[in-house]
Design goal:
By secondary structure, the chain is an alpha/beta fold. It contains 12 helices and 8 strands. Helices cover about 45% and strands about 10% of the residues. The chain has an 8-stranded parallel barrel, surrounded by 5 helices.
């Protein structure tokens, strides 16, 4: 059965480039989006956690979406982070994203409030009923403090045609098996952790919403393609080679390490908004050693 939504296999959760005043550099935003598309990304997710969404104003979010849409120019899909711990705000953000004509939205489990499963159902139902856009649910217990259970995902996916996918950032692979067992056959699962992409592919995930693809998008695409076309040994070899990079990119709160890595590659500046802080020099040595040490062959 064909899937009802496909943003590709490699979606990059894009950083928001900033200058030394920690103001958004829209020129580098456009250049980075083009770079990602040229190097393995099928879609670009803007205004997500990796894009420092907790510190962005609604006006900045709209401008970022517009800038990335212009950069993608129909060469890649654009997905907007439109979640909130306030259902009213999440609905408003979803409606704004729909006006900006994005291809889909990513909507996170409400954080800090710690809602029950019934509360999650009511939250996502309100969003699904407010917009026609495809919705990717986002389950990340390490940031939200609560886990959306497979039964909740399956209920929402079965009830709403526009709830089409899940970004699963949870190391419990049994949950992926259960999701595949009880969700509609055409419901799409994306790994939300680079290091879990290959294990999740073996359980039926479609691809990854990635941080490491800022640097190794083509290699991650190759890993996924090899797995899906009958060369799991090549996929495993690429995963093992990338594994040190996957882990070091989360040696500090995301997106601090990946911004440092992109600055190391002279693509953007390393600046992040407070309360995040840039890596110190010792941390950079460790990170850059892993990045520079990667060899594809």
């Amino acid at each position: 059965m064909p899937i009802r939504f496909d943003a590709g296999e490699v979606i990059t959760a894009m950083v928001t480039p900033m200058d030394e005043k920690r103001e958004i550099d829209y020129n580098k935003t456009e250049l980075l989006a083009k770079h990602l598309i040229d190097n393995g990304s099928d879609a670009v997710l803007v205004c997500g956690t990796t894009g420092e969404s907790p510190t962005l104003t609604h006006e900045e979010e709209a401008e970022l979406i517009s800038t990335v849409k212009r950069a993608c120019a129909n060469r890649a899909k654009v997905i907007a982070g439109a979640g909130s711990n306030s259902t009213e705000t999440a609905v408003m953000s979803a409606k704004t994203a729909q006006k900006e004509e994005v291809d889909a939205i990513l909507s996170v489990v409400p954080y800090y409030n710690k809602p029950s499963q019934r509360g999650m159902i009511e939250h996502f139902s309100a969003i699904a009923e407010a917009v026609d856009l495809p919705i990717i649910l986002y389950n990340i217990p390490s940031r939200t403090g609560v886990t959306m259970q497979p039964q909740t995902v399956a209920y929402l996916a079965g009830k709403y045609d526009n709830i089409v996918a899940l970004k699963q950032s949870c190391p419990d692979l049994d949950m992926v098996s259960e999701l595949k067992l009880i969700c509609p056959e055409d419901f799409v699962i994306y790994s939300g952790d680079d290091s879990l992409t290959l294990p999740m592919l073996s359980l039926g995930a479609h691809g990854v919403i990635s941080v490491a693809s800022h640097l190794f998008g083509s290699e991650i695409k190759s890993m996924i393609r090899n797995f899906k076309t009958g060369n799991p040994a090549a996929a495993k070899n690429m995963h093992i080679k990338l594994f040190p990079v996957f882990k070091k990119l989360f040696m500090a709160p995301n997106p601090v390490p990946v911004k440092a890595a992109l600055a190391h590659k002279k693509l953007i500046e390393e600046y992040v908004r407070r309360p995040l802080v840039e890596l110190n020099e010792d941390e950079k040595i460790i990170l850059f050693s892993a990045i520079d040490g990667f060899r594809a062959d």
